[in-house]
Design a protein that fits this description.
Layout lengths: L1 H33 L3 H14 L4 H25 L3 H9 L1 H31 L5 H17 L3 H14 L3 H7 L4 H8 L10 H14 L2 H18 L1
């Protein structure tokens, strides 16, 4: 009986630790996986179609860059206990505060355009008209904003994030050759030279990896959690 009791308490402790981790890491996971959106997937797919394995080394470098941006954002939220915009207003004044918000508004609007293009194009494969896709998505997003709690929608977002794991078996379905990946993708070089087109693709991959909205969202979430627990 003591063995069963010990196992139960260990399992309960492990379950609690996992739930605590998800509560703390939830915004970071959402931010990390949300970059696999329509614009991101299109950019990565176009890069692969154009240069093959040639820029894998560059994408690997972007991994630590995205990590450090998120880590810096978490530190700012933990220390200031404020959202990113509020911290800018307090630290640098109204000019830079409103400038950052305008920049966020513009980049979010452009991102939403790419998202709707991706959704309408994907559902058009199944015969769904574009207007119906836009209408349903707008109604759903409006319902999410005016109803429900943030924690509920974050859990749903995490569930959708888990769907992105399908890319792992999808990568193996194309039967990539390890020798080609190592020879062509792991050695830093620019296929075809550092041309204007190459520069465009590099900037596109950087832009779809690090976006202003992720900083605002993650710091606001972390700051709210810190205020609630302080």
């Amino acid at each position: 009986m003591s063995g069963v009791t010990t196992f139960y308490f260990r399992a309960a402790r492990a379950s609690k630790a996992v739930r605590l981790y998800l509560v703390l890491a939830g915004p970071g996971i959402v931010v990390m996986v949300a970059d696999n959106d329509a614009g991101g997937i299109t950019t990565y797919a176009a890069t692969g179609a154009k240069f093959g394995y040639g820029l894998i080394w560059f994408l690997i470098i972007l991994g630590p860059v995205a990590y450090f941006v998120q880590e810096m954002t978490v530190r700012l939220g933990s220390v200031t206990k404020r959202g990113h915009a509020e911290a800018i207003f307090d630290g640098f004044g109204p000019f830079w505060g409103w400038f950052s918000l305008f920049d966020l508004l513009l980049s979010d609007w452009l991102t939403l355009v790419t998202e709707f293009i991706g959704m309408t194009s994907a559902l058009a494969i199944f015969g769904v008209p574009g207007w119906a896709t836009v209408a349903v998505v707008c109604l759903l997003m409006g319902f999410m904003v005016v109803n429900g709690r943030y924690w509920t929608w974050e859990k749903l977002a995490l569930a959708f994030c888990a769907i992105n794991l399908i890319y792992i078996p999808g990568a193996f379905l194309v039967h990539p050759k390890v020798s080609d990946i190592l020879a062509q993708g792991m050695i830093p070089h620019f296929p075809g030279g550092f041309t204007a087109e190459m520069f465009f693709f590099l900037m596109a991959n950087i832009g779809t990896t690090i976006a202003p909205w992720m900083i605002f969202f993650q710091q606001s979430s972390v700051g709210a959690r810190c205020r609630a627990t302080s």
